[in-house]
Specification:
The complex is a heterodimer of chains A (318) and B (424).
Chain A (H helix, E strand, L loop, with lengths): L4 E9 L4 E10 L4 E5 L6 H8 L7 E6 L14 E4 L11 H11 L4 H14 L15 H13 L5 E5 L7 H16 L3 E6 L2 H7 L2 E6 L2 E7 H7 L4 E6 L4 H10 L2 E2 L6 E6 L6 H9 L5 E6 L4 H9 L15
Parallel strand pairs in A: 3-7, 3-8, 5-6, 6-7
Antiparallel strand pairs in A: 1-2, 1-4, 8-9, 10-12, 10-13, 11-12
Helix pairs in contact in A: 2-3, 2-4
Chain B lengths: L2 H14 L2 H27 L2 E8 L5 H14 L6 E8 L2 H13 L5 E5 L10 E4 L5 H22 L4 H8 L8 E3 L2 E3 L3 H35 L2 H6 L4 H32 L1 H8 L13 H28 L3 H20 L1 H6 L4 H6 L6 H11 L4 H29 L9 H10 L1
Parallel strand pairs in B: 1-2, 1-3
Antiparallel strand pairs in B: 3-4, 5-6
Helix pairs in contact in B: 1-9, 2-9, 3-5, 7-9, 7-11, 7-12, 7-15, 9-11, 9-16, 11-12, 11-15, 11-16, 16-17
Classes of the chains: A alpha/beta (318), B alpha/beta (424).
């Protein structure tokens, strides 16, 4: 199976600035791929170039193996959720989802059947004959999501899929995306919510100011970005441990159960030597791990604090 | 089913299912009937007025006045019917009694004809409110006839000659066509021309603005982004224009059908509403003419709808759209501006030019054709020119649409519009 999406040196310039600058990335098939970046980083511009909504100035795009600019048909195999949502306000809910599915080549009766099914699944069964404008914003978002998936595309491109949804509906959406992945579809989503990305994505690409900062599998990214911080847990607390930690700049994790310390790798930077020193303290070491930074921390480290001020979730350590 | 048909279907259904469509479809024929039948009803029926004449005048004047008023009203020359009662002067003797009768609404009003009326002394008409304009006109007409007769008689002209001397001239109007003389009068063809022009103008204004708004909706809602990932922009535009036009055409056909039905039932209508059958003649249209009219309507509508679609794609907000809408509609005003020369000199050079320019022809040609027998070659040429104009405009509009529909934010300058044209 070929890659779902390949970008090579893709650029988009506007009069005043460069929106996307030589972006290169590869989305393997059957994964959930996150494009992360602060507001204005070029996430939406990138996705819109992929969807052939705006034309790129330079570079190569292979979407499901085809160039969307030359072979428009490939776009039918994609489900796209734009960042700014919109539906025909005067149309009935079921009619709207059927309309979009038919445009993607689904037969009318089949589109109707799937539409009813999906509305049911998203808790909108009672609204199928209501006009779109009668729905709340969150409900409209779910309807729009249905229009994205109803034609059962191989690839889903979701631009900020969670924005504007309440926690319950975010969860519904999350499950739906994970489901799509289970059925073998590829999902590309853009977000500036690192917590969400960490929960869902297998691979990510972090971009800032139109350039790629880093990309790869989340596991690898975190491993590559871990520093010298270690987490150590002892069976009990002794004065000797406290002395050692004080000497080496260790910090006791007050909010945790048990006797847990975090400490920068001391003395020469050899983890094994560090472990043997800890063992020499006379209390059994029950945990010894190299702390991996969260995506959030990596993001801030690379992109800078300013750009992610707003949506900071509860920091999570793994 | 191809995407184009799906788009057309959606656009068509959205228009036809709207409340406005239903309302417009029903209201327009009602409006037409009201406009054609109501005046005829009032013409004929009129109201019955009871008036009193206070006679201080020389003998004969009031007799002739009464005769003129009652006779002319039965002949339908006047707008009201009258019963007239004569009261002998002097006025001061009967004034209070008459005033009371007016207030009791026993009589509509009374006319005082003074002794010196033949020498120019004025008559006075008194009623509870200011007398209706039509009554005053009728009264003036009758008393003038009568006083003029008295003056002529005094000048030595025999009474028997008067009637023939004063007979008003009547005009019969006819249109000359290759098939012979056509009895329709000028008023009827003028009305038809006016209705057609007004209809096209109205439909373009209404549905054109509708196209513009719906393109703008798709653009600002970003529906367009999703749509162009399934359908080429040019097809999207074509689908919209054809879909909306079909709805407009359906409405017009329903109207035409109901009017045709009215015409075939004109006997029934005239009996029912007590109007002469001729009142509905204005609505009678030859089948061939109807086909040509519809052709002009469809082409003209497409032309303007494409312009509106391009405009909708080029602008970024409702306010902007509204101010530019006028510019697009400007060519439509031209035939309305020249309504008089178009109908009075339909074969003159101005009318000919207006009938050939693609932007004005869809309105000007039907107007000319209603007013005169325009040579078939010219009609054909005009149709071809409008078609060529439509293709050119559609092609350009498609390019503007292709780029404009997806670009949001800053509004494009004219130079950027030019670049879009070269790019697409």
């Amino acid at each position: 199976m070929s890659d779902a999406l390949v970008l090579e040196g893709v650029s988009k310039r506007y009069a005043g600035h460069v929106a996307v600058d030589g972006l290169t990335l590869t989305v393997p098939p059957g994964t959930i791929y996150g494009i992360l970046g602060p507001n204005g980083a070029g996430k939406s511009t990138t996705l819109r170039m992929v969807m052939n909504i705006i034309l790129r100035d330079a570079g190569r795009i292979a979407l499901l193996g085809a160039d969307p600019e030359r072979d428009r048909k490939v776009l039918r195999r994609v489900g796209y959720l734009p960042e700014e949502r919109g539906l025909y306000r005067k149309m009935k809910v079921l009619d709207v989802v059927v309309f979009f599915a038919r445009l993607k080549g689904v037969d009318a009766r089949e589109a109707r059947r799937r539409g009813v099914e999906w509305l049911e699944r998203m808790g909108l069964a009672d609204w199928r004959d209501a006009k779109v404008e009668a729905l709340s914003k969150g409900m409209q978002q779910k309807v729009q999501f249905i229009t994205t998936v109803l034609h059962e595309p191989e690839l889903l491109i979701l631009d900020e899929p969670h924005s504007g949804l309440d926690p319950v509906n975010q969860e519904v959406l999350r499950e739906t995306i994970l489901d799509a992945r289970k059925q073998g579809r590829t999902v590309i989503l853009s977000t500036h919510n690192m917590y969400e990305a960490e929960q869902m994505c297998e691979s990510v690409c972090i971009i800032a100011a139109g350039r790629k900062v880093l990309d790869g599998r989340v596991r690898d990214v975190r491993r590559q970005n871990r520093g010298n911080r270690f987490r150590v847990e002892f069976d009990e607390r002794t004065a000797e441990i406290e002395r050692y930690m004080a000497a080496n700049g260790g910090v006791r994790m007050e909010n945790r159960q048990g006797e847990i310390w975090e400490v920068e790798l001391p003395g020469g930077g050899d983890p094994n030597r560090f472990l043997s020193e800890l063992a020499g303290l006379g209390v059994p070491v029950t945990r010894f791990e190299h702390v991996e930074p969260s995506l959030h921390e990596i993001f801030i480290q690379h992109v800078g604090n300013a750009s992610v001020a707003a949506r900071r979730p509860e920091p999570v350590h793994v | 089913m191809s995407e184009l048909l799906i788009i057309i279907g959606r656009e068509f259904r959205e228009r036809v299912q709207s409340r406005n469509f239903l309302l417009g479809t029903i209201l327009f024929p009602v409006f037409m009937v009201v406009v054609t039948v109501l005046p005829a009803m009032f013409d004929r029926g009129g109201s019955e007025r009871h008036i009193v004449v206070v006679d201080e005048a020389p003998p004969g004047v009031v007799d002739r006045f009464i005769a003129a008023l009652t006779q002319q009203s039965t002949e339908g020359e006047l707008e009201n019917r009258y019963t007239v009662e004569r009261v002998q002067g002097p006025f001061d003797a009967v004034r209070n009694e008459l005033n009371e009768r007016v207030l009791a609404e026993e009589i509509y009003g009374y006319l005082v004809v003074p002794a010196g009326v033949v020498d120019g002394e004025e008559v006075s008409f008194r009623a509870s409110a200011v007398a209706s304009f039509s009554v005053l006109r009728d009264v003036r007409r009758a008393i003038t006839t009568s006083v003029q007769a008295a003056r002529l008689q005094r000048a030595g002209i025999e009474l028997t000659e008067l009637a023939s001397l004063l007979t008003p001239v009547r005009i019969h109007t006819a249109r000359i066509t290759p098939t012979g003389e056509d009895g329709t009068d000028a008023g009827a063809s003028f009305l038809l021309a006016y209705v057609i022009a007004f209809l096209l103008y109205m439909m373009i204004a209404f549905y054109g603005a509708n196209v513009l708004r719906s393109v703008l909706e798709e653009k600002t809602n970003r529906i367009a982004e999703v749509l162009v990932s399934s359908v080429a922009a040019s097809r999207l535009m074509l689908g919209k224009v054809v879909g909306v036009s079909s709805a407009a055409l359906l409405q017009v056909l329903i109207w035409a059908g109901s009017i045709a039905l009215l015409v075939t039932r004109s006997d029934w209508l005239s009996a029912r509403f007590n109007v002469p059958p001729e009142a509905l003649d204005a609505l009678r249209v030859e089948p061939l003419l109807a086909v040509v009219l519809i052709a002009f309507f469809v082409l003209g509508f497409f032309l303007y709808a494409s312009l509106f679609a391009a405009l909708g794609a080029a602008v970024t907000s409702d306010q902007e759209a509204q101010s530019l809408q006028i510019v697009v509609m400007l060519p439509l005003f031209v035939p309305l501006l020249f309504l008089i020369p178009l109908t009075t000199e339909p074969l003159g050079p101005l009318a000919t030019v207006l009938g050939l320019v693609p932007f004005t022809a869809p309105m000007a040609m039907p107007m000319r054709m209603a007013a005169a027998n325009v040579p078939g070659g010219q009609v054909l040429l005009s149709l071809v020119l409008v078609l060529v104009g439509l293709i050119a405009v559609g092609w350009l509009a498609g390019k503007i649409y292709r780029i404009g529909i997806l670009s949001t934010g800053k509004k494009p300058t004219l130079r950027e519009l030019g670049r879009w044209l070269r790019m697409a």
